Amino acid sequence: MFMTISNFTELINENEITIVKLGADFCQPCKVLGRKIESLEKELSDVKFIDIDIEEEPEIATSLNIRNIPVLLYYKNGEMKDMTVGMLPEQTIIDKINALR
């Protein structure tokens, strides 16, 4: 799906809990974090996960003022509640998601 600011906003607003990963193909930590997110996506069916490549969608990264990657943004009902930068243990991500429930 071609991601724009408009449909990005629609996606985060149509789900109670949405986790957005911003990264890039050249970024090795982004790839590792991506595998963790893929695993969580299978376990947590009530959470919407969105993966955005900042090289393909730079306007989204700019609008969110993203300076470093990888980044996880934690949304509840369309409102950003938390943000983490860098590699995280899977349990930390789960804990942050549970805090949104």
Q: Any overview of this molecule?
A:
The structure is a single chain. The chain contains 4 helices and 4 strands. With about 100 residues, it is of the alpha+beta class. Strands 2-1-3-4 form a 4-stranded mixed β-sheet, sandwiched between helices. The chain has helices at about 5-15, 30-45, 60-65, 90-100; strands at about 15-25, 45-55, 70-75, 80-85. It is about 40% helix and about 25% strand.
> Which range best describes the helical content: under 10%, 10-25%, 25-40%, 40-55%, 55-70% or over 70%?
40-55%
Mean pLDDT: 93
The CATH topology corresponds to: Glutaredoxin
Q: How many helical elements?
A: 4
Query: From the 3D coordinates, which CATH architecture would you assign?
Result: 3-Layer(aba) Sandwich
Number of domains: 1
Helix and strand layout, with pairings?
Elements: H1 5-13, E1 17-23, H2 28-43, E2 47-53, H3 58-63, E3 71-76, E4 79-85, H4 90-100
Parallel strand pairs: 1-2
Antiparallel strand pairs: 1-3, 3-4
